[in-house]
Amino acid sequence: MSLIAKMLKDLDEREATAQQERPVFAETSHLTYKRKSRTNWPLVVAGVVVVAAAVAWGLQKFGKPAPAPEPVQLAAAPVAAPIPPQPQAPEPKPEPKPEPKPVPQVEAKPVAVPPAPTFQAPVAKPAVEPPIASFKVVNPRQNSDNLYKQAIQLAQQGQIAEAIEHLRQSLAAYSANHAARQMLAGQLVESGRVEEAAGVLREGLKFSPGNPGFAMSLARLQVAQGSKANALATMEEWLPLVGNDPEYNGFLAALQQDQGHFDAAVKHYLVALRHDPARAAWLVGIGISLQAIGKTSDAIEAYQRALDTGELKPDTARYAQQQLIRLRQ
Q1: CATH class of the domain at 244-329
Q2: Bigger pLDDT: 65 or 152?
Q3: Cα→Cα distances 173→91, 142, 163, 169, Å
Q4: Arithmetic mean of pLDDT over the chain
Q5: Phi/psi class of residue 243: alpha, beta or left (left: φ > 0; alpha: ψ in -120 to 50)?
Q6: Which conformational region is residue 313 in: left (phi greater than 0), alpha (psi within -120 to 50 degrees), or beta?
Q7: C-alpha span between 73 and 133 (Å, rounded)
């Protein structure tokens, strides 16, 4: 079995394994649900409350008639004595005082109450709004994003120096603004300040070591300066933190292939192709490395797959066809 076919078979087996693991989780969650539903404490508590309420009602309804005959005579004396005459005695006296009664009624009417809340309600609203506006201004990340957006507008208007200054201020406000850092490096390169751009990218790797974009951009700058060996060293240095990122491994494989490390190039091309098996450029790249190490049948398959995608540029497609004719002779 060829390397590329084996890679595709591994992808199919991973998908099949993922589908088999799903019902196991479903059964486990079902068992867990059954365990939780064995004890129904709310019904037990409700039963206790109902029984207690029935006992209390029975005591009030049927438990007090025995001592009832004794307190009947005691309660009769106070009922007939001073209770009814007390409210009747003051009633004849305040007969001339029906006039002050409407006075408390007029004062108790809520006529003067509604205007007070109407004046207090609008006063409380503006007191809440100013803190929100001030918080937005103080936020350093938002300030960095605003400066980055302004830099984009300045660059579109051709004001490169002003855009670079805004980008530096953006990173000073929030150093983890990766988009602003990438744009600053690009603007510096276009301005011919390649060393400054490399310094900006190296500083980004200190803040975010696992960011593949910074290492790849730095390696491309080194390639542009004619230092392919340094570019390869940069890519290999940050590989442990980047892991299986497909773009990173594809670019690393191209640098390794350029330096004659064909076995390593095949390894990293396969890592990249596992994420995108139909990437035409990577198929041609691995075909070149396979052809260099003498794996002719695998190289033929790689070239043919690259041509079948229909995404190769005319020059690259012509090269792949020439190699197929050469390898099949």
Answers
A1: mainly alpha
A2: 152
A3: 82, 9, 15, 6
A4: 76
A5: left
A6: beta
A7: 78
**Could you tell me the maximum CA-CA distance found in the chain, to the nearest angstrom?**
134
Query: Residue for token digits 């005695």?
Result: 89
Assess contact for 323 and 287: CB atoms under 8 A.
yes
Ramachandran assignment for 211, one of left (phi > 0), alpha (psi -120 to 50 degrees), beta (any other)? beta
Give tens-digit pLDDT for 154-211. Answer: 999 999 999 999 999 999 999 999 999 999 999 999 999 999 999 999 999 988 887 8
Is residue 242 scored above 50 in pLDDT?
yes
102 or 151, higher pLDDT = 151
Q: What are the Cα distances from residue 85, in Å, to 74, 82, 89, 95, 98?
A: 19, 6, 6, 17, 21
Cα–Cα nearest to 290, from 246, 247, 329, 320 = 320
- Residue range 299-319: mean pLDDT, rounded: 96
Q: Helices (DSSP H) in 178-279: which residue ranges?
A: 178-190, 194-207, 212-224, 228-242, 246-258, 262-275
CATH class of 138-243: mainly alpha
Q: Where are the beta strands (DSSP E) in 28-106?
A: none
Tokens 């974009």 sit on residue: 213
**Token pair of 56, please?**
């209390």
Fold agreement between 138-243 and 244-329? yes
pTM: 0.60
- List the chain domain ranges: 138-243, 244-329
- How confident is the model at residue 129, as a pLDDT? 53
CA angle at 285 for the pair 284 and 289, rounded to the nearest 5°: 115
Contacts of 190 (CB under 8 A, 6+ apart): 160
Q: Which residues contact 234 (CB under 8 A, 6 or more apart)?
A: 215, 218, 219, 222
Tens digits of residue pLDDT in 243-276: 899 999 999 999 999 999 999 999 999 999 999 9
More confident residue, 157 or 5: 157
279 vs 14: CA distance, rounded Å: 20
